[in-house]
Here is the input.
Amino acid sequence: MKEAVKQVASLVAILVFITILLVGYRFDLPLTMELLFPLLIKAFVGASMFWIGGLIIGDIVIKGIVEDIDPEHLEPLQGGFEQRIHEAKRKQRVSIVERQFHIDKTPKGTSGSVKDRKK
Here is the structure.
């Protein structure tokens, strides 16, 4: 999503740069450095402002859309990474509880070794 926002902001910045160049250039005068240099600075500053503004506004819009989605529906969209972490933690807790349960299940008076359990 962030890459798309960057691409759209860059496209808008390029369009603004070209627009400022075309609108700001006086076609009745010959092209000289005295006319071109301030025009390039204006176009660069305008394009930079639109690029930064596009990144900020795009980020706000994307966050607004993503936060509007329920967390249950968002998890599969993000690849289920958090869900896999919770599943692994749950399995780890279950295995720890099972180990404790088997140890506590040995008859009292025995050491709980494997040899005693086979008898």
User: Anything to note?
Assistant: The mean pLDDT is 77. Helices lie at 2-24, 33-68, 71-77, 81-104, 114-118. The first helix runs from residue 2 to 24. The two ends are 63 Å apart (CA to CA).
